[in-house]
Amino acid sequence: MPNLSDDVCARLREAFRRAAYDADGVVAALGGSAHAALGRGEPEPARRASLDAGDLGCLIRVFLLGLVEPEKAVSTAFAPLTADDAVAAGILRPSDDGYAAALDIRPHGDEEGSWWVVSDLDADMLGHTVPEDHVLGVGHASLSLIRATSRRPVDRLLDLGTGNGVQALHATRHARQVTATDVSARALALAAGTFRLNELDVELLRGEWFAPVARRRFDQVVCNPPFVVGPPRVDYTYRDSGLAGDDASALVVRQLPGFLDDGGVGQLLASWLHRRGEDWSDRVTRWLPPETDAWFVQRDVADPGLYVGTWLRDEGIDPRSPEGRAKATAWLDWFSENDVQGIGFGFVTLRRADSCTPTVVCEDLRQAYDDPLGPEAANWLDRVEWLRAHGDELMDIAFQVPDTVLLERVDSPGDEGWETTVRRLHRTDGPGWQHEVDELATRLLAGCRGLLPLTDLVELLAAAQGLAVDELAAAALPVVRELVRHGMLVPAAR
Question: How far apart are CA 425 and CA 433, in angstroms?
Answer without folding.
Answer: 8
